[in-house]
Amino acid sequence: MKNEKICLIGLGYVGLPLAVAFAEKFEVVGFDINNIRIQELKGGYDKTLEINDKLLESVKSNITYTSNMHEVEHCNIYIITVPTPVDKYNRPDLKALIESSKSVGAVLSKDDLVIYESTVYPGVTEDICIPELEKSSNLIFNKDFFCGYSPERINPGDKEHTVTKILKVTSGSTPEIARKVNELYKAVITAGTFLASSIKVAEASKVIENTQRDVNIALINELALIFDKMDIDTNEVLEAAATKWNFINLTPGLVGGHCIGVDPYYLTFKAEEVGYKPDLILAARQINNGMAKYIADKTIQKMVEAGKTIKNSNILILGLTFKEDCPDMRNTKVINIIKELIDFGVNVDVYDPWIDCKEDSCRYTYEIIDNPLDSDKTYDAIVVAVGHKQFKSYTTEQYQVLSNENNSIVIDVKNIVDRPSWRL
Predict the structure, then answer these.
(1) Which residues carry out catalysis?
(2) CA 408 from chain center: how many Å?
(3) What pLDDT digit, counting tens, does each position of 278-288 carry?
(4) What is the model's pTM?
(5) What is the per-residue pLDDT for 404?
(6) End of a domain among 288, 321, 353?
(7) Nearest-CA neighbor of 353 among 322, 380, 326?
(8) DSSP for residue 195
(9) In the Cβ-directed half-sphere of 98, how many Cα atoms lie within 13 Å?
(10) Nearest CA to 409 among 293, 297, 315?
């Protein structure tokens, strides 16, 4: 496989780490429609913080970056890693996937291989993407060009379980191509590969990974709501239950991000299309989507109990990204907490040391501030929404300094505060 020239389409949290991994063994071209992103990568900087400057430098002789599709025409393997979000009605949004297929089809040559990594419902690759490739290329599928599907397995912010250390599912459009796809990934994935029997099986395996996790978290969230009404500490209950060897030890919280909070809608969409109502999965989504409102309501309740005036009060939100120690803002549910609180007529300040407010991501935010510990401003309530390592170091005294009264209201969503006013 030494003559393979690989093009990665989409250089986000999935595409860039994969491009760098392949660049250690193959010639790679990284393509992204965002020219600012391309210029940053050419300068040796990854704003997602998934790849450090030293690693980018080590592979620069084997990888080039471009936003011009004409510069990828010499490649013979195209790996598409574009986002697959949902629209405002929670229906699959395949626009990026379709446009990428059209673009790749326009540069496709005979015997080329196109591999999809984007999370989809079973059938998208063969029923939607491949027809676009055929139309743009004027080539015949499984005769002139071939396809594979290998679902992305990236955990943003995780420096231990990086792309090469997570076992990879692979598949191909023919038995021979399936083996080729598997060998390609096996060359860089040190954790190994699993060759699925078909593209649809591989697609389905990915979409249920996060659906299963979503349902499990929804159960824990519902238990948290129940125990809160019983005045029982959910985390103490979970700690006790986790002493049994086969207990699935999860914690309650917000479910955002580009995977767990999105992927189940791809499965439910297809399930309903084929005539099945996925009640359990949809109920789990409803529970998890309702957690932000519950947290906001609890914050207001605790303020009322403390005798605080709600209208025009000041609330500090600590953390805005969808998970800890990561700058990823995609589908963060902290935004929902903020919106709910603002509806009560309060003023909200947000501090997150992991986001750069020069970036477009801040268009989703409200009042972004610098480190509140460096300011004299105090707050009627503080919501610790994300478990960043910086917030784990905050002391009880620091929370008191940030509060405008001795009876500080601290809402702990992530179970990292010592003796908060309320903990999820």
Answers:
(1) 259
(2) 33
(3) 999 999 999 99
(4) 0.92
(5) 87
(6) 288
(7) 326
(8) E
(9) 8
(10) 315
